[in-house]
Amino acid sequence: MKANPKQLLRSLVTWTALLPMVATVLVAYLGTVLWSLKVSMSNSRTFPSDEFVGLAQYERLFNNDRWLLSLENLALYGVLFIAACMLIGFLLAVFIDQEVMAEGALRTIFLYPYAMSFVATGLVWQWLLNPGNGIQQAVRQMGFEDFTFDWIIDQNKVMYTIVIASVWQASGLVMALLLAGLRGIDGEIWKAARIDGIPTWRVYVSIVLPMLGPSIATVFILLSTAVIKLFDAVVSMTQGGPGTASEVPAKFIMDHLFGRANIALASAGSIVLLLTVLALLAPLLYVRSRANAAGGDK
Amino acid sequence: MVVLRKMATALAAGLGVCVAAHAVGPKAEVIHWWTSGGESAAVKVFSDAYTTTGGVWVDTAVALGEQARSVAINRIVGGNPPTMAQFNTSKQFLDVVEQGMLNNVDEVAIRDGWDKFLPETVLNVVKVKGHYYAAPVNIHMPTWFWYSKAAFKKAGIAAEPKNMDELFAALDKLQAAGLIPLAHGGQPWQENTIFTAVLANVGGTELYLKVMRDRDAKAIQGEAFKNVLLTYKRLQSYVDKGSPGRNWNDATALLITGKAGVQIMGDWAKGEFTAARQVPGKDYGCIAGFGSKSPYIIQGDVFVFPKTTNPEQIKAQKVLAGLMLAPAVQVEFSNKKGSIPVRTDVDSSKMDICAQQGLAIMKDKSRQLGNGEIYLNPDQNGALADILTAYWNKSVPVEKVQKDIANALKN
């Protein structure tokens, strides 16, 4: 078959236009990942070294109490944070969808925390939760002498305080996304349900929620990436303390990258995190590809 | 062409300082992390001294040591090094030396006789394989025992504690008086500071070196070191509930306001007392250590000189290395910084009583010891800090802590 010169030119132009993007993906994304992988298998300290040591850094990583604790913390935080954000965000969206007064103002208030840097708000949360001068002290001054709320200095409860503060920050975003989804649902469905005499909660659970599927999936992905990235909340609220009780992988990596001049161990940690993300995404991608195969275009 | 030249003139007028600088003497760009009030005043002593030699000081202050060091290393690796960069008196820059990325200042060091007046501990850090790669500028002692005279009076403590038992007795009295006995900021590095103080004062010089320098597993697993760890943990029971996450200066503020009795902290705490208009010896006391043989722990800052072939820059590096160690500059700098000079042959009459006490102790070479950073590499030091902070905050059997430390320091 003879190619049409005009068509050939057109595809050449298209590829040329795409070239910077392709190069960026190859160098900036794939390249850096491969470079990290290489460093993680070397004995680099302050500078990258070429000496190959196999999986020694990974072995060291998984013998490190602090790293194991940070993985545990991340799992606990991930489950609680995602569940609480989804629930609160959904309830807020339903609430605003009832055509309440001053909807715009309420929406702004709920979304406001997400617009602020956590480095600043984390400090405020730290003060609020500090038993010496925060909520505990305030309630005690109101006359409840025995009131205690000292989770932030408690080894076993400190992670919950970080969950509380970051749920406060992110649930507004969940609300905004789900509200958009709710607004996209056809009013006719509500009318039909009313005629059939179905209770409102039942409509939400059995009809609206399934229809919100794509929005919920988006929210889930956004929240999951926030979990993996968790760093600023911990640093500004507890600095990983008390002791090492609120350590998270991202902080472990940053500490070893800069403070401890051990880029090999830090790279091994980031590779493990990357694998975790891929493991989370794989089932999702699989489900989507199955859905594509079954549903044709969707 | 004319337009271009006009533009250049305009630019030159705008950046008057820079251009004028170029005409007068070598420009020196310095990366450091001294950003607080007292620190900025201290760094100005160096920049003024450099300006009087006809050079131009370009200040690149980066907040936080870790950040500043990674900026410096990135710039060195990236081929755009500063003239001079700050590091701690430690193994932080050893990798950089080994990669051949620093200029040595042997010429200045030999001319000025650094070997004669630098403490051995500091000399061992700046001298790598016979060459001088860094100019030390100060000595910080991280394990002073500070106490509030007002709190001591309220608790009925008549005399300054002279040994560890007396310190514990004083802490008990403070607790009985309803005060916070030990003001502590619950951050890993501050727990490390307390550990260092206990190791030096309870364990003594020999054990200190066996653990920190020789990383001797036998000593770490031994009874004497176990006693050190138990004493360290015992101090934890005198800390108030609000301590986790507290900054060191907030802990010092507890002493200033008389709410707490004792704080174990570096001599930079003096800056906080001074800012609150308190006078050493009158409002607060400073104890360097217990007994006439207690070690004086050395911590401090150095400047390194990244490799360059530019003759102007090399000249600037040599001038800087020389002037920062001049006796008068040393005293003025240390007074503003809250440290003591790296040389003991200076006029101490203008220094406060705590610094004078420190300088007097420094004259006895047998009492000089480095802090953990001097003997351990950043990675080992960090691993040790992780174990110590976990032990301080959780109930872990002391035998497990000994085993963990021995393991962490093995490689």
From TrEMBL, chain A:
Localisation: Cell membrane
Domain ABC transmembrane type-1: start-end pairs: 71-286
Assigned keywords, A-Z: Cell membrane, Membrane, Transmembrane, Transmembrane helix, Transport
Record field: transmembrane: 12-37, 74-96, 108-128, 158-182, 203-228, 263-287
Matches recorded under Gene3D superfamilies: MetI-like
Pfam families the record matches: BPD_transp_1 (PF00528)
A GO cellular component annotation in the UniProt record: plasma membrane
Entry membrane topology: Multi-pass membrane protein
Domain of life: Bacteria
GO BP annotation list: transmembrane transport
InterPro entries: ABC_transporter_permease, MetI-like, MetI-like_sf
Signal peptide: none
PANTHER family listed in its UniProt record: ABC TRANSPORTER PERMEASE PROTEIN
Family, as annotated: Belongs to the binding-protein-dependent transport system permease family.
Protein name: Binding-protein-dependent transport systems inner membrane component
The species this protein was found in: Albidiferax ferrireducens (strain ATCC BAA-621 / DSM 15236 / T118)
From TrEMBL, chain B:
Keywords: Signal, Transport
Family matches, as Gene3D superfamilies: Periplasmic binding protein-like II
This protein's record includes keyword Transferase: no
Signal peptide range: 1-23
Similarity annotation: Belongs to the bacterial solute-binding protein 1 family.
UniProt function note: Part of a binding-protein-dependent transport system for a sugar.
Protein name: Probable sugar-binding periplasmic protein
The species this protein was found in: Albidiferax ferrireducens (strain ATCC BAA-621 / DSM 15236 / T118) (Rhodoferax ferrireducens)
